UniProtKB/TrEMBL annotation:
Alphabetically ordered keywords of this record: Apoptosis, Mitochondrion, Transit peptide
Superkingdom: Eukaryota
Designated name of the protein: Direct IAP-binding protein with low pI
InterPro entries (UniProt xref): Smac/DIABLO-like_sf, Smac_DIABLO
Taxonomic lineage of the native organism: Eukaryota, Metazoa, Chordata, Craniata, Vertebrata
Alphabetical list of Pfam families matching this protein: Smac_DIABLO
Segments of this protein annotated with the region Disordered: 264-286
GO biological process terms on file: intrinsic apoptotic signaling pathway in response to oxidative stress; neuron apoptotic process; positive regulation of apoptotic process
Length: 286
């Protein structure tokens, strides 16, 4: 049998490792590019594609290290063979992974995680999450606006009651100052009421959207997402209903206070005329 020289062994070993390394790198890179460019489920396959790319990079690094050792012209065959285990020992993970990639076709599983049903369920879960976020923000805005409206209404009620109680003790300048405060408070109540109407419209749209998201999640089989969305919807409706009850009560008290103030003002306006009629009638009788 003919024995090959050191240069022949070096050339054959280097060529073989070059072929394996380049094939491993190109094969993994092609599958990585296909996973990024061809599929429409990038957000689901990103981690697996990055793992394949890292494997290709590690394998290419092993190829470079091994080729550098084998190409050193100053080393004998014994030195090359003695240095090769150290390279393999330092890069055994890349070597094993690269060999596995060369032996087994790198294909993506079309199992449960990538089936159409699973993708639809995940998409419906994303829809319910977005609907819950919209509902939470509109609920917070509506509750806060209703709370501020109730405070403004109670402040106006207090001012009107104080005015009615002390109207007979006020001089014209003081009465004018009190009326200016009442008018400003009325304007604030009106602004708060309009703000509540705007946020209530947005909140109703969020409720309708949440109901549609819950129905879509149920039909897609995402029962957990549907139950979570429905629970959040019920909590939001309960919270808003509680604040709306306080708002309605404030409206009722405001109407009563305004009626009392109007009645008191009319009574005070008619009182001087009645006092003046008494002397005139008395003089006619004389």
């Amino acid at each position: 049998m003919r024995m090959f020289g050191a240069d022949s062994v070096n050339f054959v070993s280097t060529s073989t490792l070059e072929l394996v390394g380049w094939f491993n790198f190109l094969y993994s890179s092609v599958h990585f590019a296909n996973g990024i460019l061809d599929r429409r489920t990038d957000f689901l396959l990103f981690h697996s594609n990055m793992a394949a790319f890292r494997t290709a990079v590690f394998s290419f690094g092993l190829f470079r290290c091994t080729a550098r050792v084998l190409r050193s012209g100053n080393c004998s065959r014994r030195q090359l063979l003695a240095g090769l285990p150290a390279v393999i020992r330092n890069n055994w993970i890349s070597l094993c992974t690269g060999a596995g990639l060369c032996a087994i076709p790198f294909t993506q599983k079309q199992g449960e995680g990538l089936s159409h049903e699973a993708l639809v369920r995940r998409a419906s879960s994303l829809v319910t999450d977005s609907a819950n976020t919209f509902l939470s923000q509109t609920t917070l805005a509506l509750v806060d606006s209703l709370t501020q409206y109730v405070k403004a209404a109670h402040m106006l009620i207090t001012l009107q009651k104080r005015y009615v109680a002390s109207v007979t003790k006020l001089n014209p300048m003081e009465e004018k100052a009190v009326w200016e405060v009442i008018i400003r408070q009325r304007a604030e109540v009106t602004d708060r009421r309009n703000e509540c109407k705007r946020f209530e419209s947005s909140w109703k749209s969020a409720v309708d959207l949440s109901l549609l998201a819950v129905e879509a999640a149920y039909s897609a089989g995402a029962d957990h997402a549907a139950v979570t969305a429905r629970t959040g919807l019920q909590v939001a409706q309960s919270h808003v209903k509680e604040v709306q009850q306080r708002s309605l009560e404030a409206d009722r008290l405001l109407v009563e206070s305004s009626a009392e103030r109007a009645e008191r003002t009319a009574h005070l306006a008619a009182a001087p005329a009645e006092e003046e009629d008494v002397p005139e009638a008395y003089l006619r009788e004389d």
